[in-house]
Amino acid sequence: MGERKASKDGDRKVGRRALLIGGTAAAVGSAVLARDELARLWWRVPGVEKPREEGEVDFTGARWVAASDANWRRADRPDDYGIDMVIIHVTQGSFDSAVKVFQDPEHGAAAHYIVRKDGHITQMIRELDVAYHAGNRDYNERSVGIEHEGFVDRPQDLTDDMYEASARLTARICARYDIPVDREHIIGHVEVPGTDHTDPGEHWDWDRYMKLVRAARTAPA
Fold first, then answer.
1. Phi/psi of residue 115, nearest 5 degrees
2. Which residues form the N-acetylmuramoyl-L-alanine amidase domain (predicted)?
3. In the 3-class helix/strand/coil scheme, how is 111-140 assigned residue by residue?
4. What residues pair up with 72 in beta bridges, in sequence order?
5. If we measure between CA atoms, which residue out of 114, 165, 112 comes closest to residue 143?
6. Bridge partner residues of 187 (DSSP)
7. N or C of the chain: less Cβ packing under 10 Å?
8. What 3-state class would DSSP assign to 51?
9. d(CA 150, CA 81)
10. What are the C-alpha distances in Å from 2 to residues 7, 65, 81, 121, 139?
11. Is the pTM of this model over 0.90?
12. By the 8 A CB rule, do 104 and 45 touch?
């Protein structure tokens, strides 16, 4: 989540102008652009989106608590936007405060998951959908965001239970979307281009975390 209130990262809900972009692009001879936009908007056509059930989670054992719909954009990933990245955040606050701000429509940001210090995982946005978490529209569209309870300057907040639970979650996400388990595809918020956030901070043990993710990725289901 970082050190200050996040923005909507240039994301916007698709409106009438966006629905017209295919025709406009075709009119100027840009068939590729039109085709791309129409592919990304196909789920708006009645009856074609994937079935959804209220309270459904993507990670077994996670608890569902819905974020405000002002803090994410409905999509149908990976069919309209491919997922090839996991972005690691630290909340800069308590678990409860993170849930509260992600439910606040004025906050303008939310991640898919929050991992608590005791390893409990809450999902607030479906992986199908684009969460406003990265501060970069392209990275939002192609990633799953995971928040971790705590502060970047408090290494004691990064508990064993948190690392292990988060690693299992990241491993499952990587398996689901065939994401390579490496530091090019599992990154920190600080590494997202164009952002001014510092999380997960210098105390986040990347070597330890990546070992845990690899172990979880290869462990029997």
1. -105, 125
2. 72-201
3. CCEEECCCCCEEECCCCCCEECCCCCHHHH
4. 131
5. 112
6. 87
7. C
8. coil
9. 30
10. 11, 21, 25, 19, 16
11. no
12. no
Give the Å distances, CA to CA, from 212 to 84, 89, 128, 195.
Answer: 19, 17, 25, 27
Contact assessment for residue 178 and residue 83, using Cβ atoms and an 8 Å cutoff: no
Task: Give the per-residue pLDDT at 219.
Answer: 83
- Look at the block and give the residue holding tokens 């970082």: 2
Q: What's the full length of the chain, in residues?
A: 221
- Quick one: which of 50, 25, 44 has its CA closest to 35? 25
What letter does residue 28 receive in the DSSP assignment?
T
Q: What's the DSSP call for residue 164?
A: H
C-alpha to C-alpha distances, 129 to 25, 105, 142, 200, nearest whole angstrom: 26, 16, 10, 23
Q: Which of 66, 106, 98 is nearest to 2 (CA)?
A: 98
Which residues touch 39 (CB under 8 Å, ≥6 apart)?
80
Please name which of 91, 67, 126, 106 lies closest in space to residue 198, comparing C-alpha atoms: 91
Q: Which of 42-46, 74-78, 87-91, 143-147 has the lowest mean pLDDT?
A: 42-46
Q: CB of 109 within 8 A of CB of 199? A: no
From CA 111, how far away is CA 136, in angstroms rounded? 13
Dihedral pair phi/psi, residue 146, rounded to 5°:
-125, 115
DSSP 52-81: --TT--SSTTPEE-PPPGGGEE---TTTSS
Secondary structure of residue 91 in the 3-state scheme? coil
Going by pLDDT thresholds of 50, 70 and 90, the confidence category of residue 50 is confident
